[in-house]
Amino acid sequence: MDTTTQPIRDAGLGLRRSFLSQIVAEPPPDVSFYEIAPENWITLGGKLGKQFRALTERFTFICHGLSLSLGSTDALDEAFIHDIKAFMQQHQIKLYSEHLSYCSKDGHLYDLMPIPFTQEAVTHVAARIRRVQDILEQKIALENVSYYAAPGQEMAEIDFFNAVVEDADCAVLIDINNIYVNSINHGYDAEAFLKAIPATRIAYAHIAGHYLEAEDFLVDTHGAEVVDPVWKLLGKAYELYGVFPTLLERDFNIPAMDELIREVNIIKTMQSAWRQHHAQQSA
Questions:
Q1: In terms of CB atoms within 10 Å, which of 44, 49, 84, 138 comes out highest?
Q2: Where are the domains of the chain?
Q3: Are 70 and 98 in contact, with CB atoms under 8 Å apart?
Q4: Are 110 and 161 in contact (CB under 8 A)?
Q5: How many other β-carbons are positioned within 10 Å of the β-carbon of residue 87?
């Protein structure tokens, strides 16, 4: 895939307030871009607001939303979408992503709930995504999510995901850990899922850790280091589609910065290895 026109490149890190001051004081050179949830930063003021602005003036940022609730039957919060647009313009942020899920029904549910895999849901969600894109005046990237039940399922997860993406004409955020977690929990082939992703729509990827509840039940926590099968799945994705920007997520049990950067550097090493191999093959 051609990444020359993408607003981001290489390896990124999800920015959390707990290490904001550390990043401001000593920005790690191996992080090429940062991702933030706009809901957590859009109203930030005072010292933290100034520190954040100082970073967005120096480094590349992207937004990963938590609360658009694309699958909900509640009305879209268009005022909030306009706030996001202004926030992105203020901080020169050129990419926005969201989850293929919902988190509201007559109020916020504070969790990412699975959308029924039905044609009716495809039509409903895709229309909402198109409206978001119309307001933002740009395509958004849609993330495949982890889920633990599939009520009313009429089609496979990958078929549902691809149908929404095609109907909405949006980009794709591949979450490698979510593919692996779902493949264990729901008994499908992770590589087959990966091979069915529309490659030309890939904007970037997430990689993260999870919790082992049982051998056949994983919980997507973003609270642990990335495990070897997930790294291998990322390698397979690069093998299939070439290198694309990839971001490390860590939401709690956040370790020392050295440990976060160690995992960011694994991403960079894998990307470099693919580029060297590709150059040798092309020579």
A1: 84
A2: 11-282
A3: yes
A4: no
A5: 17
Whether 171 contacts 142, CB under 8 Å: yes
CA distance 281 to 283: 6
The pair of structure tokens assigned to 50 is 């100034």
What is the C-alpha to C-alpha distance for residues 143 and 96, in angstroms, rounded to an integer?
11
The per-residue pLDDT for range 265-277, each reduced to its tens digit, is 999 999 999 999 8
**For range 222-247, the mean pLDDT:** 97
For 11-282, CATH gives 3.20.20.150
pLDDT digits 0-9 by tens, 182-203: 999 999 999 999 999 999 999 9
| Dihedral-angle region of residue 67 (phi above 0 means left; psi in -120 to 50 means alpha; beta otherwise) | alpha
| pLDDT tens by residue, 19-77 | 999 999 999 999 999 999 999 999 888 999 999 999 999 999 999 999 899 988 889 99
Q: Which amino acid is at 208?
A: A
